[in-house]
């Protein structure tokens, strides 16, 4: 009998070819894909305005990634607002700053109220 029949030899596996590499280095967190949703495509929009709208999602993602990575080095709250709301109009930016400030003030007021109740209950 031929040798191939007696021994069940398997052919050597052929290694897969390497995956093609892109010329640009991919970021550690992939950017979200650009999706042309209907509300982004207004009838009178120029090509430049459309590209600017499509770039917003990517830039917002990059800004949030920078904030998440460099959260220890942010000195001022306005840096966060400017990074996240870079495309917002000044009125929207002012409103967002007011909301953030009022949220911080509300949190401090709540902490003060709890401390006052604690002092009255336990030391009063």
UniProtKB/TrEMBL annotation:
Keyword Membrane listed: yes
Annotated Basic and acidic residues bias: 1-12
Region (Disordered): 1-38
Keywords for the protein's UniProt record, in alphabetical order: Membrane, Transmembrane, Transmembrane helix
Record-annotated membrane-spanning stretches: 103-123
Protein's name in the database: t-SNARE coiled-coil homology domain-containing protein
